[in-house]
Design brief:
The structure holds 2 protein chains of 2 kinds. Chain A is mainly α. Chain A contains 16 helices and no strands. Chain A folds into 2 domains: about 70 residues, no CATH class; about 170 residues, MetI-like (MetI-like fold), CATH 1.10.3720.10. In chain A, helix 4 packs across helix 16, helix 5 packs across helix 14 and helix 10 packs antiparallel against helix 11. Chain B contains 15 helices and no strands. In chain B, helix 4 crosses helix 15 and helix 14 packs antiparallel against helix 15. By secondary structure, chain B is mostly helical. Classes of the chains: A mainly alpha, B mainly alpha.
């Protein structure tokens, strides 16, 4: 013990010297990571630049890193038209209502599993685990939503199917199980019922995991597009992702985006990019604040499996 | 006081045994989730009987007449079965290998970057693509590969600079497994590196100090200490990936390829095939049969993966 301590002391000055000298591998790391970072950012920047470049130049020169000549026409058209607003209303509704439903249901079922109740928790674990192993596939799901639940052209067709993610339930369970038993016991002694304990003690103490859940679900809902493709055909109800899908499957649809009828020459490509920017925008804005919760969620999930 | 103490003693002794009323209340709490699972997970499982029926809307799922295994025969007799199954497994293997490798390398390199703010910034940057939706990825890819109106594109402009002939990428099926793999690395590289970094931080600092004493370079330490200690994490991720091998990434592939038939030979996976036959042909029976085939084989993969994963994790906890 004494030996290691002295070694540690003599080592320290040496390590400082070693740190000052940049080793080849460290240098290579800086370069590679920076290049990969650019690789991640450049495609996004191309879209932003494209959305600000005049359509006539877009067609002639292709893309450039800097918007020239600078043009806000696409944004003007989008903000004066109706479909951007419709798209935002739809996406916001799906995201907000969906996330609220998801968090409440995930947290409650996870708590019941985490409580280790005899004859309840164990079967419930298996019940929630089986869908991770086996699923019915697309056709029965499609028939369920269209023929049984009659949710065609309803935003709930994009909310309900995604409401619970078994993986997130189990992440939440593992968080709940770390809760100190003493606090719960104290509440029980004071005569609090199980529901009261959950709502007034467990939930307020679980803000970190609730934030993780909210963010994972919110991004899923915001980016969701598959269920929209299947169940939403009324263009007035399209969320943003579906409007975008419509734009790439048919370029001429872009011309119909702005409702200003007198416009014969709509800048279709510029519009497409502007729409893309406005779709990614909210995630990009929330990202700096939310990122650490994602990291926490992944780490929890990775360690607890 | 005495009563309170007595109560405490009793709850302490029989904490788990709640009154049936309390149990009922807790079950009530779980009820929305239970109902959801019954409808959206277990309902479709029951609905799989469609695979054995000649389905028509009028008679519904359970009223339609049975037709044995002819739905399955139709799928396996068509040449498509071999192609889509091969594509699914081949593409998923490429995606898994490439994104794990990229994630591992990025994690090792991020670990070398000591400056706190810069490292945190780069981590945020490379993690971001994970949150970009498939449709947006598809639009970015068009910018790079085909440009405006199918002419040019960033990559072709680059080829021009080097006097190389331009390529019409969207009519070139051979290139697409690799293009999609690059997309996957873009999308998942940072995400995977976060998982590896979490594992790296749990490695004890003393190991590195001992290596530094012996005069090991950072590269040597990464290769001989970090990588071997990351193997269990790597193995778990491989196993989980293999478990998902039979389920294609529908969203990304369909968003990019859309209904571009030229690219189907190399990009059509089971999920996109099922989706198209449902939407275009509307043949519910055959489509459900393919879905059932996928679910069953997928289940075998996943179950095997879970069993192997349990073993790997047990061994790694000994390490």
């Amino acid at each position: 013990m004494v030996g290691t301590a002295t070694i540690g002391r003599t080592l320290r000055p040496g390590r400082k010297v070693a740190r000052r000298r940049l080793e080849p591998f460290a240098a290579a790391s800086y370069v590679t990571v920076t290049l990969f970072g650019l690789f991640c950012l450049v495609p996004l920047w191309m879209i932003v630049a494209g959305s600000l470049t005049d359509e006539s130049v877009l067609g002639l020169n292709g893309y450039s890193l800097f918007p020239q000549p600078f043009s806000l026409r696409a944004y003007q058209l989008l903000f004066t038209g109706q479909s951007l607003l419709n798209g935002y209303v739809a996406s916001l509704f799906i995201t907000v209502v969906g996330t609220l439903l998801s968090i409440s249901c995930t947290a409650s079922i996870a708590w019941v599993i985490a409580r280790r109740l005899p004859f309840i928790s164990r079967p419930l674990t298996i019940f929630a685990y089986i869908p991770m192993l086996f699923n019915g596939g697309l056709v029965p799901f499609y028939l369920l939503v269209t023929q049984v639940l009659h949710l065609t052209n309803s935003w709930f067709a994009m909310i309900l199917p995604l409401m619970l993610a078994p993986f997130l339930i189990f992440v939440t369970v593992s968080f709940f199980r770390q809760m100190p038993e003493e606090i719960l016991d104290a509440a029980r002694i004071d005569g609090a019922g199980e529901l009261r304990i959950f709502f007034q003690i467990v939930l307020p103490l679980s803000k970190p995991i609730l934030a993780v859940l909210a963010l994972f679900y919110a991004v899923t809902y915001w980016n969701e597009w598959f269920t929209g493709l299947l169940f939403i055909s009324d263009t007035d109800k399209f969320p943003l992702q579906l409007i975008l899908q419509n734009l790439i499957s048919n370029v001429t649809n872009a011309a119909s985006l702005p409702s200003s009828a007198g416009d014969s020459m709509a800048p279709v490509y510029q519009l497409r990019f502007a729409m893309t920017v406005l779709t990614v925008g909210p995630i990009l804005l929330a990202y700096p604040f939310a990122q650490r919760f994602f990291v926490k969620g992944i780490t929890l999930g990775a360690t607890k499996g | 006081m005495a009563i309170a103490k007595q109560g405490a003693a009793r709850t302490g002794k029989r904490r788990k045994a709640l009154s049936s009323r309390e149990n009922l209340l807790l079950l009530l709490l779980a009820l929305p989730g239970i109902i959801w699972f019954l409808i959206f997970s277990y309902g479709p499982m029951a609905g799989l009987v469609v695979a054995f029926k000649s389905f028509n809307i009028r008679d519904g799922i359970f009223g339609s007449p049975w037709n044995g295994i002819s739905n399955f025969r139709y799928f396996f007799m068509s040449g498509d079965a071999v192609t889509v199954v091969f594509n699914t497994v081949f593409l998923n293997s490429l995606f898994l290998g490439a994104s794990l490798f990229a994630g591992l390398v990025l994690a090792l390199m991020l670990n070398e970057i000591r400056g706190g703010p810069y490292r945190r910034f780069m981590q945020s940057v490379i993690f971001f693509p994970y949150f970009v939706s498939p449709i947006v990825i598809s639009i970015m890819l068009q910018v790079i590969l085909s440009g405006v109106g199918g002419r040019g594109g960033l990559l072709n402009n680059l080829l021009n600079v080097f006097d190389l002939p331009q390529v019409a990428w969207y009519t070139e099926p051979g290139a697409w497994p690799w293009i999609l793999t690059i997309v996957k690395v873009w999308q998942l590289g940072g995400y995977t590196s976060v998982i590896f970094l979490a594992a790296i931080t749990s490695i004890s600092e003393e190991v590195y100090e001992a290596a530094a004493l012996d005069g090991a370079s950072r590269w040597r330490m990464a290769l001989s200490i970090t990588v071997p200690l990351l193997l269990p994490t790597f193995a778990v991720l491989v196993v989980l990936g293999v478990g998902r091998m039979f389920f294609g990434d529908f969203a990304t592939i369909y968003a990019i390829v859309q209904d571009n038939g030229v690219l189907f030979p190399t990009t059509d996976v089971i999920d996109t095939y099922v989706f198209r036959s449902l939407r275009m042909i509307g043949d519910f029976g055959t489509t459900a049969a393919i879905g059932l085939f996928q679910s069953v084989v997928g289940f075998i993969f996943v179950a095997a993966a879970v069993l192997v994963q349990r073993r790997v994790q047990k061994e790694s906890s000994i390490l």
